[in-house]
Structure formats: C-alpha cells, structure tokens
Amino acid sequence: MRPVYLEMNAFGPYAGREVLDFRRLGERTLFLICGPTGAGKTTILDAVTYALYGDTSGDERTGAHMRSEYAPPTEETYVSFRFSIGSAYYRVERRPEQELAKKRGEGTRRVSAGAALFETDEEGHELKAIATKSVSVTREVQRLLGFESKQFRQVVLLPQGDFRRLLLARSDERQQIMQTLFRTQKYEVFLTRLKERYDGLRNSYNAGEDEVKHVLAGVGMEGEEETASEVRRRRRAVAAAAVQSDAAAEELDGLRRKAAEARLVAAHFAALDKAERELDELRRKTGEADEWNKQIERLEKAAFYGPRFAHMDEIGAEGKDAAQRLAAAEEKNEAAAAALAEKKRRLGELADTEGKRNDADRERVLLKALLPKIEALAATAGEARRAAAAASDAKRACDAAEKERRRLAERAEALKKETDTLKDAPAEAEKAAETARLCEARVKTEERAAAMEKEAAGLKAECAEARLEAEQAARAAKEADLAYKNIQIALLNGQAAALAAALEADRPCPVCGSTHHPAPAAGSTAVPAPDEVERAEKKAAEAKLVLTRKEAELSRQEAFAKAKEAEYARLRADVPADGGPEEWREKTARAEARAAALREEAAAYAAFVKEAEETARLLQEAAVRAEAVKDDFDRKERLRIEKEAAAASLYRDIPGEFHVQGAAARKVRELDAFIAAYDRERKDLEGTVLGEEKSLAAAQGAEANLRREVIRLRERYGEAREKLKEEILAAGFADWEECRRLQGEGERKEKLKQRLDGYRTALHRTEGLAEAEKKATAGRQRPDMDAYEARLAEKEGAYKELLARVEGARAEAQSLDRAVKRIEALRREQERLREEFRTVGNLYDLTSGGQSGVSLERYVLGALLDEVLAAANLRLAVMSRSRYSLQRSVSWEDRRIKKIGLDIEVFDQYTGYARPANTLSGGESFLASMSLALGLADVVQAYSGGIHMDTIFIDEGFGTLDGETLDTALKVLVQLKESGRLVGIISHVPELKERITTRLVIDKTDRGSTAKFEIV
Fold first, then answer.
1. Do residues 216 and 223 lie in contact, with contact meaning Cβ atoms separated by under 8 Å?
2. Which of 51-65, 871-885, 981-995 has the lowest mean pLDDT?
3. What does the record note on quaternary structure (predicted)?
C-alpha cells in the first residue's frame, strides 16, 4: 500500500479542509512529519488508519472523537484517502456519526456514520464502487491490504509509545500477524480437516462396533456364531412348513373351483327370479303409460298454436309502444308551447326598457372622454409619492453615512493606541516559543538521564545479586568436587580391600606382583557402587558448569553496569544536572504558557494592524460616500416639490367621485357590461322565438300522425284475437287461457316423453333377459350355496393359519439372515477403516506436533520468522554496530517453548549470551523494532504477491538515540530508497529536521492547524 492523496475535513486539530498530495514527493522516499506538540502530526496517521479501518493509529480514539473542536458547527467531519496497491488505485471515504447545525433555522441535525470504497484510475476518477457500508468497506480493505487494523499498526505504523509491540508480542499474537501476512491459514485448515478425518474414522469404527451390538440385540442374540447357527436351523423349519402349505393350497384350489361353478348356476337362477318380478311390475303399468301418451298429444296440439299467439303479442306490443310515444309527444308539445309564451313575454319587457339602455350609452361616451385626464392624475400622483419616498430614503442615507464616518474616525484613533501598545509582541512571542522548545528538549534529556540513572542502579543491584549467586555457585561447586573426591577414594579403598581379601601367602599380588603382603588393606563398611560414583562425578561437573555460567553472567552484568554508567557520564558531561524532569516540565509549562500568551498578543497585534489599515480605507470611502449621498438628497427633494404641484393641478379638473384610482374605469366597464347584456339578450330572444314557433308546428303535426297509428293497431289486434279464439274452441280446448297455459308446459311434455320411452325400453329389455335366463337354467337344479360356503371358509381358515406359521418362520429366518449379512458388511468396513486410520493417524500425529511438539503451521511460520529475522539483522547489525542480532528462542528440552516456537530473543555479541527482547533499553528496542518491521516487509513482499508493504510510518522513538546511532539509523532508512519504499517519520528531534530536507510541516494556530509539504 502506498499513499497517493489524503483529504481531511474538520478532523482532529484541522478545522477546515486539508489536502496532502503525496505525489509531490516524487522520487523522494524519506520524509519528516514535524511541528509543535499537539499540532496534529500523529493525526495524519490517525486519518489514514481511520479511513482504512474506522479506528485510529493508537487504537485509543474512535472516529466520533476525532471531530475538530475548531470547526464551525455546520462543517462536516470526513476523511478521503487515495492509495495504490501495485498498479491498482483505490479511494476510501469515511465520516463518523456527528451532530451538525441545521443549514436553515435553529437546532442540530444528526448525520449518521458512512463509508465507501471505490476503485479509481491513476488520476482518481471513479471506475466502480466496491463497498458502500462501513463493515463491508473494512472487510474489503482487509482483503486488499492483507491484514487487519491491529496488524496494520504493528507492521506498517510504529505508533508513538508503542513501537515495540511487534518485537515484544506474545507468540500467539505474532502467529496471528504472520498467518495473515504470509497466508499460512491453509496449513491450519489442512490440519483441521485432517483431524476431522482422523476423528471421523475413529468415530466411524466405534460406531460400527456399536451397530454390531445393536444388530445382535435386535435379533435377541449374544454372539455372531450363535446367530449363524440359529439362521441354519430356522431355514430348515421354513422348508418343512412350506411342503405342508403347498399340499393344503392344492386341496383348497379344487374346492374353490367347485364353489365357483355352483355360484354361477345360483346366479342364473337369481337373475331369472328378478327378471320375472320386474316383468310383472311393468305389465301392471300399461294403463298409466296410455294416459301419458294422451297428455303428450294434447300438449303438442297446444304448441301448434304458439306462433299465432306470438304474432298477437307482437301487434299488442306495437300498439303499447305507439301509445307511449303519443303520450310523450303530447307532454313535450305542451311544455314547448308554455316556454315560447314566456320568451315572448320577456321580449316585450325588453322593448319597454330600451330608453334606459340609451341613457347608459350616452353616460359611457362622456366617461371615456374623461379617462386620459384621470390616468394622467394617477401617474402624476404616483410619481409624487415615489419622489417623496426617495427623498426620505436619501435623507436617512445621508444621516447614516455621516454617522458611519464619525464611527470609523473614532475606531481608527483607538486602533492606533492598541498597535502602539503591542508593537513588540511578535518578536517576544518568537523568543518565548524558542525558550519553550528548548525546555521541552531538556525535559526529554532529563527523562533520559533519569532512566539511565535508574537503569544503572538496577544494573548495580543485578551485579550484586549475580555476585552473590556466583559465590553460592562456587561454594556448591567446591562441595560437589569434594564429595566426588571422597566417594572416589572410598571406591578405591573398597576395591583394594577386595583385592586384599583374595591375597594368599607366597602368591604374587595382582597389583604389585610381590609375594609378601605385610599390610593388606582393611575392608570398609560401605563401598560405593559405580553408578553412585558416576552421579557424584556428573553432579560435580554440573556444579562447575553452573559456576562458569554464573561467573560469565556476573561479568556481563558488570559490563552492562559500567557501560550504562559511562553513557550517563557522557550525557552529564554535555548537560549538567541542574534540575530534574519535573522541574524542567514546570519550566516548560511556564515557558509554553508565556509563549501562548505572547502568541495571543502577537495575533492581536496583527489583527489590530490589519483592522487599522482596513478602517483607514473604509474611512476614506465613507467620506466620499457621505458627499455623494448629500448631492443625491438635494436632487430628489427638488423632484418631489415639482411632482406634487403637477398632481394638485389635475385634482381640480376631475370630479371628486373619480379621484380614486380606477373608479372611472370601473364605471365604464359596468356600463359596457349592461349595454352588451341588453343587446345580446334581445337579439337571442328574437331569434329563439322565431325558431321555436316553427319547431312547435312540426311537433304538433307528428303528434297527429301518432294518434292515427294507435287507432289502426288497436283495430288490427281485435280482429286477429277473435279469429284465433274460434279455432282454439274448435280444437277442443275449453277456452283461450287453457291453450296459452298448456303452451308453457313444454318441459312437462318432454318429461312425459322420456318416461314413456323409458317404460317401453325397460319392458323390452326385461322380456329378453327373462327368456335368456330360462335357457341358462334349463335342466339344472338350484345348488346349496350355504353348504359350499361353510366348507370353503373352513378350509381357507386352516390354510391361512398354516400360511401364517410359514411366513412367520420365514420372516424370523430372513431377519436373522439380514442381521448376519449386516454384521459381515460392518466387519469388512471396520477392516477398511482400520487400514485408513493407521495411515491418517500417523500423518495427523506428525503434522499436529504429537511427535515433535511443533505443528506443521508452526514449523512453516518458524522458518518464515527465521527469514524475517535474517532480513532484520542485516539492518540491526549496522545500527547496533554489530552488537545485537535477533533470533528465535529454541530450547528443545523445554516442552513449553516447543509449543510456542515464535518467541524472539536478542543475542548480544559483547557477552556471548542471548536474552529476552524486553531487556533492551529504549533506544535499543527502537532500533530492533524498526529493523524487525523493515525485515518483515522485505520477506512479505518477496513471498506474498498480493500484499504490498510499500510504506512504513514511524511515530517518535528517535529521541532515545544518541547522535552516532541516529546517524547510523538514518543511513539505513536512506538506503530504503533503492527498494522504493516510502518512509514517514514523526519526531521532535532537531537533528532530524536538519538532515531530512523533505518535510510535512504542521503549523499550529489558535484557529486550528494546517499541513503542507516543504521540499528543499
């Protein structure tokens, strides 16, 4: 990740919009972020971290807490950060939840938190949106960069006061970092899946054993051999029962065939009986069928006259319609005649009021002649009013201009007094600021001196303790050596006594060869065993080794103590002990307070000078403006007098009732409307009366024609009715109404036809069926079906019982057979699982660390950490002048360490011993941490194509280095230019500002801070 463009708005100490274009750095890869304390140097890193992850570089403040206290209440807080990863460019935007003043009206409005991530081109133009919600933006940033916020602050940012986090991280924390950076989670996933397979095989094997027991329990057996024997026995029993059931089935089939033949004969006799009964019933209904036939004939005769009745109905309907139209025409003509009479009456009234209309026309002509003067009066009166208002406004403006001129003159005099009083404030403020900076540097020096003094005292105490331990080790070594020598003497004495016991007179000694034995060795009470001597020897050697280590540790501690005392002496040679850190902090606070007060006075002086210049300019403009306003007032006053005189002349020539503006015009409009309405109504009435007279005459003629049509239809209907009535009576109907009623019973006629047809069909069918059954039963006797059925039921019951016994035996045998087959299948599967479990188990034991104590992933991470430490040592060797190197803590006798595997220790070439990293001093820790971060970036860049660690930010830490070490560290950082890595340093150390010419300068004012690049 490489920064391209950072935009902050109302963020931290930055009140407004601050833009940092990192492209201005060009090929410069090392730059310094500098500025006063509290100006906002670390806020730059906070903004980058907040944009990417939604938290800050120190992980102590949230985005909501980063809103600027200097920002206006309407200014929104947000951060926009553009960065590149390889050849791809991105822009991430975030804003915290915040309360802003409403743009209109009073009160506040809540702005919710938001975030967005875009892919852009090199110029920042948006290509596509990747994520638009805070959580998804953070997740996508983690995917792009390759690590989370916490890991980002450990390998890309070295935060103020926390730069040793990666160096001193616990083994599990370092594992998480390296897992993410080197993407070794696949080994953990592999091990997890392998364990799942391992557990699955074991569980499957055990489940198979449980299922075998379950299968045996299900069939009531205890062992597999017993089950197989029982299966064979039951198979023989099933075969014997099957033979019996086959014989019973053959006998039952013969009986069923005879019963079926008897049922067929019995069915024919039953069908014959039923057919004869039905035939008797049908023959008894012959008279009823004849009546149905007569009713059908009468209904069909009535239907014959249906069209004649329909024709009569059509004539009647035409007559009714004509009568209705005649009544409507009569009513309409009466209404039209009444309306025509009313219009003729109104036309007469209009003729009587024609004189009033002519008077209105004459009045209208006179008023139109007077309108031009009335309009001139209105215009002149308006001009007079406007002239009076303009003159009044000009008078007020004239008074205000003179008042402003006097106010500015008084303010200019007051500002001259203020600037004379504060003219020395800027120079004094600069001196006070320099004094505060020197005091602040002295505080750090005294803190360093106090830390050195404290560390030296601690080292002296450690020396005393080491000396005591060395003395104790010497005593223990001496005692162990003496014990070893004593037990060795006892062993020799015992061996001599054993030899002496075997000596014989005049026989040579096996040791010296003499045949004389004047003083043979006497036996001792206890002769040590060889293993006792070996243990004593080993104990003496171990005590001597402990003594050697303790003496070396004492020498190392004394060397540390002397080095620290010398370092403290060099510091005090440059800076005398004339006050401790607290005293210099108080001096710094007083100096900063004085500097702040003087800065306020200097700012006030600058503001007064600027205001005085502006006031002088405004005073000159006010004098010119007052003169111009006076001339304008005189001109407008003369115009007012002129317009008021002209308006008074016109008032005298116009009647009083028309002095009101618009009165004459309204009167003319009223007269126009009256005359137009009169003329329009009279013209409309004259035309309407003539047209309606013609229409009424035509309508009355149509009414007479309708009356004649009604009379004709009534006569025609009566003639047709009389003729049809005569024919109906002649056809045998009682009257007109009976014939019409029977015409409506068509549905009953159809039902009678269906009933008659059904009767005739049933009679024919039943006669044929009775004849066929007589032929089928000819020469046969009725069978006794009750006897047949009883015997058949008895045989079927016996067969079913026998069959049930066979099926039961077969089911039991099959159940046992299935159990045996299932057990055999389970045993085959268990054998297969046993073979696979042997392979998987060995592999899991190897990769999980069961044999070595180091898992596969820990082994890979350990190898990667070795490479990281090797890369880090290339720089640490230079910066520590070949004294220190980083290495992994490896002690294969310590099982705990074997499980950790990623701890780091420091090897000191001066002492020849390795020690924990947390024993380094502040400056040494800083160098080791910076080397580790750079080495990690080198190795990650080489291994992980998707992770680009092109940038590192270091917040403070250089203040703990002496001048020579600072030079060496800077040389190492400058060498990074060859790799193209961007390095940003935040520091108050004055030497860095002199040596690093590319700077991001933060300026602090009472209205907030500003930031800009300075490239020399």
1. yes
2. 51-65
3. Heterodimer of SbcC and SbcD.
Packing angle of the helix pair 171-182, 922-943 (nearest 10 deg):
30
Q: At what angle do helices 736-743 and 306-352 cross, to 10 degrees?
A: 100
Distance separating alpha carbons of residues 825 and 816, to the nearest angstrom: 14
Three-class SS of 252-295: HHHHHHHHHHHHHHHHHHHHHHHHHHHHHHHHCCHHHHHHHHHH
Question: Which residues contact residue 754 at a Cβ distance below 8 angstroms, ignoring those fewer than 6 apart?
Answer: none
Of the pLDDT bands very low, low, confident and very high (cuts 50, 70, 90), residue 754 is confident
Cα separation, 434 vs 595, whole angstroms: 9
The one-letter code for the residue type at 404 is E
Residue 192 has what pLDDT?
A: 81
Percent of the chain whose pLDDT exceeds 70: 88
| Cα 184 versus chain centre, distance | 27
Question: How close are the terminal C-alpha atoms of the chain, in Å?
Answer: 26
- Residue-level pLDDT at 159: 58
Residue 725 to residues 295, 301, 304, 308, 311: CA-CA distances in angstroms? 22, 15, 14, 11, 14
3-class DSSP assignment, residue 90: strand
Please tell me the predicted confidence (pLDDT) of residue 897: 43
Residue 147 has pLDDT above 80, yes or no: no
DSSP one-letter string for 325-367 = HHHHHHHHHHHHHHHHHHHHHHHHHHHHTHHHHHHHHHHHHHH
Look at phi and psi of residue 575 and say left if phi exceeds 0, alpha if psi is from -120 to 50, else beta. beta
Phi, psi of 812 (to 5 degrees): -65, -40
Return the structure tokens found at 5: 């463009």
pLDDT at 880: 82
CA dist 1000 and 14 (Å) reads 14
Cα distance between residue 40 and residue 20, in whole Å: 14
Half-sphere exposure of 645 (CA within 13 A, CB side): 5
User: Which residues make beta-bridge pairs with 1003?
Assistant: 1010
Whose CA is closest to 742, among 254, 313, 299?
Answer: 299
pLDDT beyond 90 at 377: no
Name, in order, each residue with C-beta under 8 angstroms of 340's C-beta and a sequence gap of 6 or more.
689, 692, 693, 696
User: Which pLDDT score, from 0 to 100, does residue 898 have?
Assistant: 43
Please provide the DSSP assignment of 33-54 as one string: EE-STTSSHHHHHHHHHHHHHS
Neighbours of 238 (CB within 10 A): 19
**C-alpha to C-alpha distance for 932 and 985, rounded to whole angstroms:** 16
Alpha-carbon gap, residue 965 to 924, rounded angstroms: 10
Residue (of 11, 8, 28, 41) closest to 955 by Cα position: 41
Average pLDDT over residues 988-1009: 84
> For all residues of the chain together, what is the average pLDDT?
79
Q: What are the start-end ranges of the H helices in 777-855?
A: 785-847
Average pLDDT of 37-48? Answer: 88
Instruction: Give the DSSP letter string of 588-644.
Output: HHHHHHHHHHHHHHHHHHHHHHHHHHHHHHHHHHHHHHHHHHHHHHHHHHHHHHHHH
Show Cβ contacts of residue 1015 under 8 Å, excluding neighbours closer than 6 positions: 24, 25, 28, 997, 998, 999
Query: From its phi and psi, is residue 72 left (phi > 0), alpha (psi between -120 and 50) or beta?
Result: beta
Q: 86: which 2 tokens?
A: 């390889």
**Backbone angle region of 399, left / alpha / beta, with phi > 0 → left and psi within -120 to 50 → alpha:** alpha
Beta bridge partners of 887: 905
Look at strands 2-11 and 78-85 and give their pairing.
antiparallel
Q: β-strands 30-34, 98-101: how paired?
A: unpaired
pLDDT higher at 54 or 495? 54
